[in-house]
Structures are given as structure tokens and as C-alpha cells.
Amino acid sequence: MNIQKDINICFEKLKELQESDELIDALNQLQIQNKIFYQLVRRKNEEKISNNKK
Asked: What is the enclosing helix (H) or strand (E) of 18?
């Protein structure tokens, strides 16, 4: 199973990164990207609502 092999590789990489700041940096970057994404989605939804009220 390739999927299981990929999952195992990911877990091994996570174990290696756990001790380093790289994992923390990557998670912080992901969190920032998620915040930006949700802000964009919220703005788009507000625009749609505003346009529907017109």
C-alpha cells in the first residue's frame, strides 16, 4: 500500500522535526496562511451578501 508507506514516511519526518524549530516554524506559517485564507473567504462572503441586498 503506497498510502500507508507515505503515511509512515510522514510520521518519520515528523519525529525528526519534532526536536527542531523547523516544525514550529512550519506550523506557525500554516497558521498564518489559514488566517489569511479565512479573511479572504469572509470578505468574499460579505461582498456577496452586500451585492444580494442591492
From this structure: helix 2-18
